[in-house]
Amino acid sequence: MATTQEALYTNKIFLCGALPLLKTIVADVPSLKSKFENIHCVYQVSCLDPEAPEGKYATHFVVNGDEWLVHANKVAYQVNDQKFVELQFKTVDTMNAFFKGKIGPATLPKMIGLKNIKEFGAFMMALLKMSSLLTANKPPEKEEDKRLTVKCYFYLLSSGISTLNKMGHEAIHDWTSKSPDRVYAWKVDGEDSVSAYIRIKAGKSKAGRGEYKRALPFFTMRFNNLDSALGILMSIDDMIESVQKGKLIMEGAPEFGAQIGGFMMEIGAMAK
Questions:
Q1: What does the mean pLDDT of the chain come to?
Q2: Is 255 exposed, middle or buried (0-12, 13-18, 19+ CB in 10 A)?
Q3: Distance (Å, rounded) from C-alpha 99 to C-alpha 3?
């Protein structure tokens, strides 16, 4: 059976949006960071598909201690005696199901490189942390976990929207193709490290982490604190009510809030 376009969209959200978050998560969680201190390994998450150019779709990481090189949507192959760990899913659909939390015999990947026990164990711990952040139904209690969760959601949204645009998603590509050079941003008051943006122009898009410094964004979705951000990002609070209560401030061009909100919900639905 041919892979549906919707399944491919979802898969690219995971490959280009969610999996690259591992670098951020490991850097921000001391207990995970310490696990990778002396690790030198190539990690890959892939899914087989006969229609893919190389027979599979994948994202891989070249890890050397604190240094993570992320190669989103690119296939890697083991070279010589290089340490190599891979989670290889049978199909696009089984990978999508696994990362949506539907874990069972039918969705488990083939695990390559199990002999690299230390490397494999550290990677699985990072993946489990990512899963716990993105699939949670209620906000975390610890402030550092709230901060990391919001940061990851912002990064996922900016990368996800840009990824779907590049894949030709009808609504998103129609939006970018008619747009002049504009920047749309997400941020939280008092949290300088918790921000992301997407720049669009004439059908092209580029996602970015942190604040856009070159000019004032055309539109910013700004939250008054982390809890307010989580309320919207986790679909707990109503967007209009949050605006009325001052939890969410639409800066620059508020009429675009509903449009961005719609794309956010679509990305969120694909990732959960």
A1: 94
A2: exposed
A3: 17
Q: Tell me the β-bridge partners of 251.
A: 220
In order of 137, 148, 234, the CA distances from 143 in angstroms are 17, 9, 16
Give every CB contact of residue 225 below 8 A, 6+ residues apart in sequence: 188, 189, 190, 247
Q: How far is CA 16 from CA 190, 212, 265, in A?
A: 28, 20, 17
Rounded to the nearest angstrom, the gap between the alpha carbon of residue 29 and the centroid of all alpha carbons in its chain is: 17
Closest CA to 106 of 118, 98, 116, 114: 98
Which tokens hold the place of 158?
A: 């900016």
Beta bridge partner(s), residue 184: 198, 219
Cβ(64)–Cβ(105) under 8 Å?
no
Per DSSP, what are the bridge partners of residue 58?
46
The alpha-helical segments, DSSP class H, found in 100-194 are: 117-135, 143-166, 170-177
Of 235, 243, 236, nearest to 262 by C-alpha is 235
Determine how many CB atoms are found less than 10 A away from the CB of residue 140. Answer: 16
Ranges of H-type helices in 167-256: 170-177, 226-233, 239-244
Place of tokens 């998603």: 169
Each residue's pLDDT tens digit, 146-197: 999 999 999 999 999 999 999 999 999 999 999 999 999 999 999 999 999 9
Cut 0.85: pTM above it: yes
For residue 96, the cross-strand partners are none
Contact, 155 vs 196, CB < 8 A? yes
DSSP code at position 59: E
Q: For residues 189 and 61, what is the distance between their CA atoms, to the nearest angstrom?
A: 32
